[in-house]
Write a structure and sequence with these properties.
Blueprint (H helix, E strand, L loop, with lengths): L20 H28 L11 H13 L8 H30 L10 H31 L11 H34 L11 H4 L7 H25 L7 H10 L13 H11 L32 H9 L5 H4 L2 H4 L6 H15 L30 H4 L3 H5 L6 H5 L6 H14 L6 H13 L23
Helix pairs in contact: 1-3, 1-7, 2-8, 3-4, 4-5, 5-7, 8-10, 10-13, 13-17
Keywords: 4Fe-4S, Iron, Iron-sulfur, Membrane, Metal-binding, Oxidoreductase, Transmembrane, Transmembrane helix
Protein name: 4Fe-4S dicluster protein
Pfam families: Fer4_9
Amino acid sequence: MHNEYISDLTPNLPFPVHFSIQNILFLLVAAAGFGLFAWQVRKIRANILVGRDRDMSGNVSERLNKTLLVALGQQKMFKRITPALLHLIVYVGFIVINIEVVEILIDGIFGTHRALSFLGPLYSALVGTNEVLGALVILAVAAFWWRRNVKKVRRFTGPELRMWPRLDANIILYVEVILMVALFTMNAADLKLHQIEGVDLPGAFPISSLLTGLLPDNAAALEILERVGWWAHIVGILCFLNYLPSSKHFHIILAFPNVYYSRLVPQGQFSNVDSITHEVKAMMDPSYQVPAPATNPDGSAMAPTPFGAKDVNDLAWTNLLNAYSCTECGRCTSVCPANITGKLLSPRKIIMDTRDRMEEKYNSPLIFQPNLYGTEAKHAEPEVLDKENHTLLRGYVTPEELWACTTCNACVEACPVNINPLESIVEMRRFLVLEESAAPNSLNVMFSNIENNGAPWAFSPSDRFNWADELYVAAK
């Protein structure tokens, strides 16, 4: 029986303790699971840090407030009420059910059974809430699956959603259902086993109590079912944890730092290039002292920083964090006026391309390389890619996509985790203009007019007020 344990080794703990071969096996599995996850996180962190440095210190209270509202409170999700409510169910279920995961970890390490039951009525409330949320999660997941695969919501389609992104979205839905079924199997078997033995099981089980009639009356079979459910739940969670770095669902972790480090300046405010700013100031004020160029530790001059971005390492590290925080929900693309009117631009694709390029050039996830997955990926696996010259600009993102952007900030406003595709678009356009002089002809004409006439139009400054010559002006 579960409650017949030896507690002599740890007399100060609020729950009885028992050690067995299961505890040793659990420790090995947990160490492997958390260790592999930590290793993958280090690889992703290294990818993000190849970006240009950007000082994001300060404004702590404002950043924390934004994180609480946008990341934790999901403020921007509720612009679309149906998916927002479904996501809220899954999100709250994820948070609350993790309390039970804490109990499973304690039970696995110390050999206890329902170690948090000493909480009494609070424990019953937590378990009962877990059960209700677990059932609601299954219903919400079913609704998500229907919206994606039957209704086929338009923003879940697009050329960037190749074989892997489509498969990934469904895999996570199936995994969530499996985890909930394992949880209910564990609870229902444990509840019926205690009922057969005439012992009260701590906690409230509003859903599992309805499922006990489906289970056998044999105590040995129930113990096996309870253990299968317990192991399936915790091993499933560890597998899910190590699947996240290869999945868009890594946003459940990175959404928080991404929102915290999001821009606090007004939307649409562009950054200036320091070197150009210094040159302009020197032209306007001859007494202005241009700062000395940066040097390497050995005193030699550092290589000049290119204008704009050609590859992922030319973007700021916050832009690369954006790429790993993307949920691929398509809200940005669905409100993009360029995409709506049939242009090639898709802000979601820009972000997904950035992540794919990082994993192509630097570190890829443990399980596989999503950017090279399947025959419907952009590049078939047998293709040998030049990782140095197959850059983000032109290798993944075409100039036609970039120049379709109207810089309206609709994509930035729509993103539920404050991703800023516009910043990456502007940086790549800046590279095209300042490094390659590859602006569209219409822009080159404008540049020439500004240089020669001081205005975007092809008129001499002396003719600027000719339009007013025939206006009637009453004599004073």
